[in-house]
């Protein structure tokens, strides 16, 4: 039995003949003449080493071996068709797995909305979220464990590209009993002397570095009472009365007891970018489809 010589066409011809119960009817369905079709079946029987059909007065019928082979052949053809469809969809960016890196407030608003839009357009794509800080996202991208990441400003990386996807206004998170709570906005200079719950410095730069530059530009020395790794903990500490914190628009979705959010004044350039980062050499259709959805979301926010 030479199984390596069996081709998909052999199986397709066999299945059509078995379902038609006639070489003549099968040749019409397959749009080939009957003699070549007969030769293909004879070749298949020789390769399998068994007879598949038996002639009857009113056509042909399957032998016991033919009936067994029919079920398997039909399943193989179905699986082959499904595999080809999956590869076609994958080539169009409509199928596959997308590994997305998120961290902090990015996971609270804009990224979920982008992913929701993407799921509606590409429901067959599996999306896996990874909670990684900036350094973790960069490492995972370089090791090809991540498709795309969302975080605050990324520094220059030779093999990575980033683009701004959203500009977010900064707010102060305070208790409802704090003097700032009734204000429509707060000047950056008014943060002098306030007990701040902020975030540790990162060697790769980021949100806290931008805040530190803003403090420097305003000639302020921040009074940091505690450093935390994420915005949820920062707002929780505000709720507990540990101090006030500086957060972005997205974090204002966090509803904790007694906490209110007051925007910093626009004239103080109190804004920060949310960026999307990816590998420079990744031209996969799946990533390009996701980038298109994210960019469309960005455009829709500007209207």
Automatic annotation (TrEMBL):
Annotated HTH lysR-type domain residues: 6-63
Classification via Gene3D superfamilies: Periplasmic binding protein-like II, Winged helix-like DNA-binding domain superfamily/Winged helix DNA-binding domain
SUPFAM superfamilies: Periplasmic binding protein-like II, Winged helix' DNA-binding domain
Keyword DNA-binding tagged: yes
InterPro entries assigned to the protein according to its UniProt record, in alphabetical order: LysR_HTH_N, LysR_subst-bd, WH-like_DNA-bd_sf, WH_DNA-bd_sf
Swiss-Prot/TrEMBL keywords: DNA-binding, Transcription, Transcription regulation
Protein name: LysR-family transcriptional regulator
Taxonomic source organism: Hydrocarboniphaga effusa AP103
